[in-house]
Design the sequence.
């Protein structure tokens, strides 16, 4: 596995495992629980020890599945991220959500806690104060945001007294390159890592014809999936969290690490999908 600093002195895998859709979407779905737990454990064995989940996923059931999957694992070797939903950003609601997530995960802390989506009806100052309180109480090591613009991310940091945001998790892929314009430069300026969710656009990158992708993948002896993921992690400060419960796909993800596209290949891919 390849590692990169997500914040100073803390290295995590450049590829993690997303869990949206595992255990249901907006409501719990327990039909494939055994398969899902097995898949998460396989991902961990492969080195995908950066696990991303949220209280919203399956109304908390995804967190329960992650909790079951990590039983027996050395907690210090895992980097667990969870997120608080946008209707729980008042202080008391946020602290309650934090503790509920820990209970479902079966851990005494997460490594990173994110505000899942901004909510303009709740003062950002109140939310950030509650996030800092989560650090002080030992519920999370680090905090960050998700789906925040560059301007809103900077505003959120401005409300923090002692902590710093370490990550902004956003949709980012060859098919959605908007973060490259303003957000990624702002992240680098602020020392914030960018975590790319939906890096394969739910399979659209595989299905969308593209001659440049096929040329580069063929020359490299890689699949489209592996090239698309490598395009992301070849960029400074970028991590990716693809999601799958398919063992074949999990193995395929691993072919995205241990090599790098050249700057010219990255540019050609960017232009071809823009």
Sequence:
């Amino acid at each position: 596995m390849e590692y990169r600093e997500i914040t100073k002195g803390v290295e995590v895998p450049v590829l993690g495992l997303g869990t949206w859709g595992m255990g249901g979407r907006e409501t719990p779905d327990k039909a494939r629980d055994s398969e899902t737990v097995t898949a998460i454990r396989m991902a961990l064995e492969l080195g995908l020890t950066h696990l991303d989940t949220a209280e919203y996923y399956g109304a908390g059931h995804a967190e329960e599945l992650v909790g079951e999957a990590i039983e027996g694992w050395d907690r210090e070797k895992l980097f667990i991220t969870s997120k608080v939903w946008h209707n729980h950003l008042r202080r008391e609601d946020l602290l309650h959500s934090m503790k509920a997530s820990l209970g479902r995960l079966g851990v005494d802390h997460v490594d990173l806690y994110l505000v899942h989506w901004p909510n303009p009806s709740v003062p950002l100052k109140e939310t950030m104060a509650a996030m800092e309180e989560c650090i002080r109480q030992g519920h999370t090591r680090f905090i960050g945001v998700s789906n925040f613009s560059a301007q809103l991310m900077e505003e959120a940091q401005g409300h923090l007294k002692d902590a710093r945001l370490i990550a902004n998790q956003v949709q980012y892929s060859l098919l959605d390159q908007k973060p490259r314009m303003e957000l990624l430069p702002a992240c680098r300026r602020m020392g914030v890592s960018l975590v790319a969710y939906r890096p394969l656009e739910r399979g659209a990158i595989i299905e969308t014809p593209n001659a440049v992708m096929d040329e580069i993948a063929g020359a490299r002896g890689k699949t489209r999936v592996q090239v698309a993921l490598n395009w992301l992690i070849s960029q400074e400060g970028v991590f990716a969290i693809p999601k799958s419960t398919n063992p074949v796909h999990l193995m395929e993800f691993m072919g995205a690490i241990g090599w790098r596209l050249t700057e010219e290949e990255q540019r050609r891919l960017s232009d071809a999908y823009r």
Q: What stands out?
A: The mean pLDDT is 98.
